[in-house]
Amino acid sequence: MGRIALVPTMGALHDGHMTLVKEARRHADVVVVSIFVNPRQFGPNEDLDAYPRTMERDTEMLRAAGCNFVFAPNESELYPEPQVYKVLPPAALADIVEGHFRPGFFVGVCTVVLKLFNCVQPRFAVFGKKDYQQLMTWCAEATRLEVRTNADNPEQTAQALAFGAQGIGLTRTEHMFFEGDRIDAVREMILADTVEGRKKALAKILPYQRADFTGIFKALNGLPATIRLLDPPLHEFVPHDEKSQAALAKKLGIKTEKVVARVAALHEFNPMLGHRGCRLGIAYPEITETQARAIFEAAAAVQKKGIKVKPEVMVPLVGFKRELDLQVEVIHRVAAEVQKEQKVKIAYSVGTMIEVPRGALTADEIAHTAEFFSFGTNDLTQTALGVSRDDMGNFLGAYTENEIFKKNPFATLDQTGVGQLVQIAIEKGRKTRPDIKLGICGEHGGEPESVKFCHRVGLNYVSCSPYRVPVARLAAAQAAIEEKRAAKK
User: Which 3 state secondary structure label does DSSP give 271?
Assistant: First the structure.
């Protein structure tokens, strides 16, 4: 039959339902619309019999919209006697908001949806925005922890905002380098022998990055954006096969031998712990200068249009306070230059990623300079556990079988080990700077157990990829409710 999409309804259909049918048709070969007035969603004092039933009109509308099948079971068919099971939603959410006023409402919703799924067995299910918005509204009412997104362009930003993200917790500027022809300018910078040569190439990159940041600031419309400066080692941007190296040499008008020699010189035995992060900016401060100028010129341009901007410039891989000091000096100098040139005052902050153990253990020192910490738990997990995320596949099965890892530590935060480093950094950072902003930007920021940990230890926000924002928001709400309930016991 092909891929099936289900649109669950209680009948009394309107144009909004037809929009869902059209959306279902985009994703599936067969569209099934269920019409069932679910008695389990009605409370004892609610009039089930008065709910409108317009089957003939509904089926005509569905036929016109392209629905293939209408599934309209009666109560005895969907709930045969005896009713042997029901689906219980998370206890923390079952009796709040609408559940508080309509006991059993969410049990009824969860149960009927599961039954419909079992009957129709769809590949996709299409629900209305109202359902999602209602859920997210409830989450917002309960939540203390903010949820931001990891986004590298205006499109991702807009997508995450639609899911309810409250800003950007991580923009990876290196992802912008691969768009269009700009990679050529990046490679020209890497191959340059002098500061002047690198600056000439960086001048070509500047307008690209400025345009990227302008789009992001406009999309955010006043929400904060944490922008990480260049992080990966330079060898990731150059070609490694002979044919591509020869093509690059021809394009840049240099000898192939020079490209080959430079690529060889960039080789590292352990790139994750090599010449990357703030180490790049310290060795080549002109890279930091260019990126900072792109950020602040974009912020100035957007601010002049009457749109608020909140750039948060993040220096990666800091383990020593002096590393951050050197980079912050460059950032502040460039910010002052741009503000003077553009005749604007930009409210910005500068902070760092805590992603190596020394950064966490010396957070009290680093907080003298950093206005915020963002825990890069992907790399913090690698450096704390001494485990490569890319190479752990050879022993992950054995470690899970033998219960060394209860769960994949790169999917669910290791709260005992890595979590302890996070807690140490929080305590030390706040001791030095009580109002320091604290967040997490690894993919752990979208995993429910990890989000709840972040709530318990007092982070201000979590950040995750756009499609994980709803999961993170729900987990943040659950964490807040669980905390309040525990406090009452």
Answer: helix
